[in-house]
Design goal:
Length: 406
C-alpha cells in the first residue's frame, strides 16, 4: 500500500511529527546520540498538554527525501514536522533542527544549536521551546522523566525506543534480549527502563507460550516490574508506568493497580499509542470491551503507520469479539495475522469469532494454526486471565466451539 492511500484529517489541536534526526558522522556513538535526541524531543512534546504528536513508530517509517512534506502531513495527520541532524565530535555536539509546515508552505524556521556534550539537555530544551513558541504559543513544555546521560544513551542505544516496538521480539531473540537488558540494568543501577523491559520480556514469554517454566518467568516478570516501579523516577515516567502496569495485569491479575498505572501513564503522555494499546488489553481482561475498542482505535489514529499495528488490530478484534461483533472481529484478526503470523493471540480471537459466525471449518483451521505455534495453550488460561463477564463468556464459548482444548 502506498502512503498516499491513507490520508488522515488534521486533529483539532496543534499537531506535529518528529522525524528521526540524522547523524552526520554515521558512527555508533553518533547514532546513539541522534536516536536519543529524537526520543527526547518526541517524548517532551508528547507529554505537553494540548498537542497531538504522531507516534514515533509511525514517524520513523517516513524517510524524508523519498516522501515530501505534504504527504507526511496526509499520512500522519499532522500540520508540522520537526527534523534535523546531529554532529558529535571532540567533546562538542551540534544540533540542526528544522520545523516545517505540511500545507505546502515549507520550512518555518531552521536553526543550529551548539555546545559541549554536557549541554545536550539544554540544547534539546531550546529546540522544544522554539517549536512550542511556533505551533502553540504560550504553552510551556512538559518535564518528561529524566533522560540518561551520554554514557546512558550509549548503553541504551538498542533499547531507546524498545517500549514502542517491543513485540518485534521473537522466540529466538527474547533470551538474548533479556541478557542484554540485564547487562544494561547492572551498568545503570538507578535506571528503571531496563527492568521494565525485562518485565515485558517475561510477559511475552508466557503470553506466546515460549516459556519452559511459566511459574519462574511469571515471578521474575513481576519482580522486575515492581523493582522498576520502586525507583525514584518511575512515577514520572509514562513508559515505566505503562510497561509495569501491563505486566502486573497479565502476570499478576492486579487489574486495579494496573489500570491506575496505565491511567497515570496516559495522563502524563496522552500521545502514547502503546499506552492506549496496553490499556485496551487490560480493559478486555476486566470485561469492558466497548471501552477497550475506543482505546485500540485511539492507538491506531495516534500511530497510523506503526510497524506494530498488528497489536492494535488484534486487540480491536478481541474487543469486538467480546461484544459479539464477529464479522468485524474476523476482519481485524485476519489483518493482524497477515501482519504478524507468529503472534498467537490473533489466532485465538480469529478462531472464536469464526465459530461465533458458525463457520466451524474455518474456526477449526484457525485453532490448528494457533496450536501449531503454541501447543500448550488451553482455554482455562483465558478463564484465569479474564474476570467473569458476558464478553469473556462469548470469547471462551467461541474458542471451545473452534475445538481448542480445555
Amino acid at each position: 500500500m502506498r502512503l498516499s492511500d491513507m490520508p488522515l484529517a488534521l486533529p483539532d489541536r496543534p499537531s506535529i511529527a518528529v522525524l528521526p534526526f540524522r547523524d552526520v558522522a554515521d558512527a555508533a556513538g553518533a547514532r546513539s546520540v541522534a536516536d536519543g535526541v529524537t526520543e527526547h524531543l518526541t517524548e517532551t512534546l508528547a507529554c505537553t498538554p494540548g498537542l497531538f504528536v504522531s507516534g514515533r513508530n509511525s514517524a520513523f517509517t517516513v524517510r524524508r527525501g523519498a516522501v515530501g512534506l505534504e504527504e507526511v502531513g496526509r499520512v500522519l495527520g499532522v500540520a508540522s514536522v520537526l527534523e534535523g541532524r546531529v554532529e558529535s565530535t571532540s567533546g562538542r555536539v551540534r544540533l540542526t533542527a528544522c520545523l516545517s509546515a505540511t500545507d505546502g508552505t515549507g520550512a518555518v524556521w531552521s536553526e543550529r544549536f551548539e555546545g559541549d556534550e554536557g549541554a545536550l539537555p539544554a540544547l534539546q530544551a531550546e529546540i522544544v521551546a522554539r517549536t512550542l513558541a511556533t505551533i502553540a504559543p504560550g504553552r510551556p513544555p512538559a518535564r518528561p522523566a529524566a533522560a540518561p546521560g551520554r554514557a546512558g544513551i550509549g548503553i541504551y542505544a538498542p533499547f531507546l525506543s524498545a517500549y514502542a516496538s517491543f513485540s518485534s521480539t521473537s522466540q529466538e531473540s527474547i533470551r538474548p534480549l533479556l541478557r542484554s537488558l540485564a547487562a544494561a540494568a547492572q551498568a545503570l543501577p538507578d535506571e528503571p527502563l531496563p527492568r521494565a523491559l525485562m518485565a515485558q520480556c517475561h510477559t511475552f514469554l508466557i503470553a506466546q507460550g515460549w516459556s519452559t517454566d511459566p511459574a519462574r518467568d511469571g515471578a521474575e516478570g513481576l519482580r522486575c516490574a515492581r523493582a522498576a516501579l520502586a525507583m525514584a523516577s518511575a512515577q514520572d515516567s509514562p513508559a515505566i508506568l505503562m510497561l509495569a502496569g501491563n505486566t502486573l495485569a497479565f502476570l499478576g491479575q492486579e487489574y486495579d493497580e494496573a489500570l491506575r498505572l496505565l491511567g497515570r501513564s496516559l495522563a502524563l503522555n496522552p500521545n502514547s499509542a502503546a499506552a492506549y494499546e496496553r490499556s485496551g488489553w487490560v480493559r478486555c481482561y476486566v470485561g469492558e470491551p466497548a471501552r477497550a475498542a475506543e482505546l485500540f482505535r485511539a492507538a491506531k489514529r495516534q500511530s497510523p503507520l506503526d510497524r506494530e499495528t498488528f497489536l492494535f488490530d488484534s486487540g480491536l478484534a478481541l474487543a469486538l469479539c467480546m461484544q459479539g461483533a464477529h464479522e468485524e472481529a474476523v476482519a481485524w484478526a485476519r489483518r493482524a495475522v497477515r501482519d504478524k503470523p507468529s503472534w498467537t493471540s490473533s489466532y485465538r480471537i480469529l478462531a472464536a469469532s469464526l465459530a461465533g459466525l458458525g463457520r466451524r471449518d474455518e474456526a477449526a483451521a484457525a485453532a490448528r494454526a494457533l496450536l501449531a505455534l503454541e501447543p500448550s495453550y488451553r482455554v482455562g488460561w483465558a478463564l484465569r486471565l479474564y474476570r467473569p463477564s458476558p464478553g469473556r463468556d462469548l470469547f471462551v464459548q467461541g474458542m471451545r466451539a473452534a475445538g481448542l482444548p480445555e
